[in-house]
């Protein structure tokens, strides 16, 4: 273990060994990394533990600087463990540079089939006794981390003392196609709100799309910017400042008749999956509560013709941006994903097992609270509300005060509310 200090905090790095397949505990092992964060003024105190499960899937835990964001509130009551979920951050990596060592695409897909919420929760349960001495811990799940927390309540509730969920209650028994039917509607609403706020962006987006339809652009990282890729910038519309960021991106995209270098650089930063390739590979799988996904977002998009670019390219309709959807073409235009195209196809066809035990959730006895964001573009509130009602004792807080990133941007207010809810203080 390595221990070091930042302003107001003491951090300790931990590593653990866990099996790739928890059904074969004596089989191949991989490494997990986790960072302990304690308040400097209580570093020696035996405060309860709070496990943080990051959103994604496929992203490492936050890299904190002091007591920033929600950590300031958390450190008043807890020692925090920031877990790099398997395949992310400093845990044994899984990306285009490491996966080929496992063999062909089928072998890589079989390996990655062990990277969903069920395996992440099993990892947490395996390392918990090493961290807490066997005591249960509080779990804070953001977005996909909330999916993992529901899995935790479903499969290993004795390991949890309290569950805190923000923007991440999955559907129970809901087909992945129905998830995208709801999210496409919410994305369309976010587009309308954006263009109402910034009406000049209608023509700016249309102009960029027409340029890309005539000449797809080369991105600095070697990727290709097509009309469909440009539309996928709408993924930022679900964040608290996302509409403003999109507006500034569209403010001055041209140098004469060509797209300028600054615009292409900023687009590259928004579109590349370099920081989280597993997000693209496993995103639909994280919704699959049984069965294959078969590129659901691509198939369901055909039911929403307003997202077709043709009306904007050939007429006067606004170009609609898409949201947190993963499409097969992304594995052609992004160099980070291209080597994983066959793997992604196999995982799209994979018959995923159920993730949640509805009977166990119906008899839950762990204190639990969830922030459900009314305008959430990524996790439909309709599913969150229904799932909250299916988990015995879970207290939902439905609010339009925050977007999906409420935990991060609220400077501790969302976490403070959830803590008060599980303790019965509000």
Q: Can you characterise this structure?
A:
The protein is of the alpha/beta class. The chain has two domains: 2-173 and 354-422, Alpha/Beta hydrolase fold, catalytic domain (Rossmann fold), CATH 3.40.50.1820; 176-348, no CATH class. 37% of the residues lie in helices and 17% in strands. It has helices spanning 71-74, 105-112, 117-132, 144-155, 176-197, 201-214, 227-231, 242-250, 261-271, 277-282, 296-301, 310-314, 330-333, 341-348, 358-362, 381-390, 406-409, 413-422; strands spanning 2-6, 9-19, 29-39, 49-53, 79-84, 137-142, 160-166, 217-218, 224-225, 254-255, 258-259, 368-373, 394-399. The chain has a nine-stranded mixed β-sheet with strand order 1-2-3-5-4-6-7-12-13, with helices on both faces. A two-stranded antiparallel ribbon has the order 8-9. A hairpin with a 2-residue loop joins strand 10 and strand 11 (258-259). Helix 2 (105-112) crosses helix 14 and helix 3 packs across helix 4. The two termini are 39 Å apart. 48% of the residues are buried.
State the low-pLDDT regions, or none.
none
Q: Gyration radius, to the nearest Å?
A: 22 Å
Helical content (DSSP H or I, runs of 4+): 25-40%
- The mean pLDDT is 96
The main sheet comes to: 9 strands, mixed
Give the tags.
Rossmann fold, 17% strand, 2 domains, two-stranded antiparallel sheet, 37% helix, 18 helices, alpha/beta, nine-stranded mixed β-sheet, 426 residues
């Amino acid at each position: 273990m390595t221990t070091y200090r930042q302003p107001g905090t003491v951090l300790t790095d931990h590593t653990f060994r866990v099996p790739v397949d928890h059904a074969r505990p004596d089989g191949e092992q991989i490494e997990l990394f986790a960072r302990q964060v304690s308040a400097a003024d209580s570093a020696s105190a035996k405060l309860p533990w709070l496990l943080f499960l990051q959103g994604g899937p496929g992203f490492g835990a936050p890299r904190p600087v002091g007591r920033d964001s929600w950590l300031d509130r958390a450190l008043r009551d807890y020692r925090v463990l920031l877990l790099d979920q398997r395949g992310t951050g400093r845990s044994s990596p899984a990306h285009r540079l490491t996966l080929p060592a496992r063999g062909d695409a089928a072998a890589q897909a079989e390996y990655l089939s062990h990277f969903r919420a069920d395996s992440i929760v099993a990892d947490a349960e395996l390392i918990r006794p090493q961290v807490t001495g066997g005591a249960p811990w509080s779990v804070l799940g953001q977005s996909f981390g909330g999916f993992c927390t529901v899995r935790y309540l479903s499969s290993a509730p004795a390991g949890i003392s309290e569950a805190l969920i923000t923007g991440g209650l999955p559907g129970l028994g809901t087909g992945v196609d129905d998830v995208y039917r709801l999210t496409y509607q919410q994305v369309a609403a976010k587009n309308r709100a954006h263009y109402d706020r910034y009406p000049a962006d209608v023509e700016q987006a249309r102009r960029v799309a027409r340029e890309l339809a005539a000449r797809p652009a080369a991105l600095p990282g070697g990727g290709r910017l097509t009309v469909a890729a440009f539309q996928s910038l709408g993924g930022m519309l679900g964040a608290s400042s996302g509409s403003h960021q999109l507006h500034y991106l569209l403010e001055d995209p041209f140098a004469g008749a060509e797209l300028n270098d600054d615009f292409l650089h900023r687009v590259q930063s928004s579109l590349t999956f370099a920081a989280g390739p597993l997000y693209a590979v496993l995103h639909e799988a994280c919704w699959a509560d049984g069965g294959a996904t078969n590129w659901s977002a691509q198939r369901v998009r055909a039911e929403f013709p307003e997202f077709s670019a043709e009306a904007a390219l050939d007429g006067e309709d606004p170009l609609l941006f898409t949201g947190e959807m993963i499409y097969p073409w992304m594995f052609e235009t992004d160099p980070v994903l291209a080597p994983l195209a066959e793997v992604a196809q196999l995982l799209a066809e994979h018959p995923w097992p159920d993730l949640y035990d509805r009977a166990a959730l119906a008899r839950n006895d762990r204190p639990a609270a969830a922030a459900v964001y009314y305008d959430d573009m990524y996790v439909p509130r309709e599913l969150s509300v229904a799932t909250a009602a299916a988990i015995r004792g879970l207290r939902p807080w439905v609010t339009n005060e925050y977007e999906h990133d409420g935990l991060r941007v609220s400077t501790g207010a969302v976490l403070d509310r959830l803590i008060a809810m599980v303790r019965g203080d509000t």
